[in-house]
Design goal:
171 residues; mainly alpha; dUTPase
Amino acid sequence: MTELDIAKYLRQTRDMMHEVSVQWEIPIGPKQVLLNDYLNLDVSLSELTFKTQSVLLNVPGKQPQQDEQEVLALYSQAFVQFLTISLRQQWTHLMVMTDEDIAQFGRFPQRHLAHQFMGIKTILLNSYHQKRQADFSHAWRSFLKLGLVELGISQADLHKAIQNNFNDNYA
């Protein structure tokens, strides 16, 4: 089984951040960049919530079909967005996970994904407003648990999707 190489992903993310920011048509100030990163992650989490059918429409419309490949792509995108924020905040030490940490995730599975998504988003936004590393760390661990346990994404599949994310940016 391919294990997640967070240190490698952080290096790739750092390189990608520079490549992406120089392509922005409308430059934004340094204080807005972090807000932009958090809002992009929030949007990705919202799309993931919708695509996993964790929320039902409350207005007329068509509920999306669950597509495992699309869920994996969205999850890997949000994964990289978490890394981006950790780099900007200089919180990369929070991203390191041991095999034991990952093994612990399976102890308390969450049956209601909507609750987990809302919890991740709440804690994540608190980490932005309060600038608290502990909240960001909690959101990160909850996010990893969501993917590896509740969504059943294997580390090998996640690794491939993350690499595809970087390859798409440099194609």
